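Quick one: 2Fe-2S iron-sulfur cluster-binding protein from Rhodoplanes azumiensis, structure tokens please.
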Amino acid sequence: MADVTFTSPAMPKDVTVYATAGDTRTLLSVAKEHKVPIHFECENGECGSCACQVTVLSDKTPLGIALTEKEKTVLKLAGKITDKQIHDAEVKDLPPPWRLACQFIVRHEDILVKF
Ligand code: FES
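--- reply ---
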């Protein structure tokens, strides 16, 4: 159960959708279902075209921060994440600012997604 708010210059206004409890879908899947125009190509964590900024909107410890190996590689090559941010995500549970929408699993927390 989470509100996912999408914001982008590509949309006339922000869109907030409700992700259902028990969902283990990717952020890209949620966006596509609601016709949110996040750009994508491979849908497999390889091209980096779906990179977006994700901010957790609650005070609780973020839940969905596990980065896939593909995310680490692609985001690092794109200059959107540092080794320190990867380390902080893995060791300190600090969410990195950028994620790949096709790899990020929506959890039970409200998030803001900028693309
Ligand atoms: Fe290619 Fe997400 S669509 S990395």
